[in-house]
Write a structure and sequence with these properties.
By secondary structure, the protein is of the alpha+beta class. The protein has one domain: NADH Oxidase (3-Layer(aba) Sandwich), CATH 3.40.109. The chain contains 8 helices and 5 strands; from the N terminus they run ααβααβααβαββα. Strands 1, 2, 3, 4 and 5 form a 5-stranded antiparallel beta sheet that branches. α3 packs antiparallel against α4.
């Protein structure tokens, strides 16, 4: 008998950040499935205060996309390109990843659908994030399972007030991420990460975990 969990672990192991997306439209029923996956996630007290803004309007995407590109070009790209490669990857692969990120900055407005997870509250906090980011991960995994590319990005938060004004969010509502979604130009997975001994400690900080 096939282990159904094998599919889940395969999906997790191949859910790469897909930054090169086709502009082809995505059927409404598929977006609905992704959104439903988001609502399956846990939240503090099961209050389910998340709200999901689905953006397809070209003018809104162009306005927000301009801030996103500015954040990448002026702030984020210089920092990454002057730093060291990400854990678990080579300099060559890291360079390709940065090229893909540049592509997203140049073309994010062309992604057919954006999902922007939001919550009410005066100021986003780590504890607030615990009630929204599980929903975000559910949606990323759902997109992968349905053959769609997506990525979680928060670069636009460098211009948070301007972007949230462009999105028409009320003053008491804040966005926590932007998920551009579309059919990918490239292939899924596998993801490349640091090995467990590099990131896992046992009982106290700095003590390597014994892997049996």
């Amino acid at each position: 008998m096939t282990d159904p969990s094998a599919d889940l672990f395969e999906i997790m192991a191949t859910t790469r950040s897909m930054r090169r997306l086709k502009p082809d439209p995505v059927p409404e029923e598929i977006i609905r499935k992704i959104l439903e996956a988001g609502t399956y996630a846990p939240s503090g007290g099961n209050m389910q205060r998340w709200r999901f803004l689905v953006v397809k309007d070209a003018k809104v995407k162009a306005a927000v996309g301009a801030y996103y590109k500015r954040a990448w070009d002026e702030i984020v790209s210089p920092r990454y390109r002057s730093g060291v490669p990400a854990p678990g990857t080579s300099s060559e692969r890291f360079s390709r990843m940065l090229d893909a990120a540049q592509y997203l900055a140049d073309h994010i407005h062309e992604a057919p659908v954006w999902i922007i997870p939001c919550m009410e509250g005066a100021s986003p906090t780590r504890t607030a994030g615990s009630s929204i980011y599980p929903a975000v991960q559910n949606m990323l995994l759902a997109a992968r399972a349905l053959g769609l590319g997506a990525t979680l990005t928060t670069l636009y938060l460098n211009f948070e007030k301007e972007v949230e004004a462009a999105l028409g969010l009320p003053a008491e509502v804040h966005s926590y991420a932007l998920l551009p979604i579309g059919y990918p130009m490239g292939r899924f997975g596998p993801v490349r990460r640091a090995q467990l001994p590099e990131v896992v400690y046992e009982d106290r900080w700095g003590r390597p975990m014994t892997m049996r």
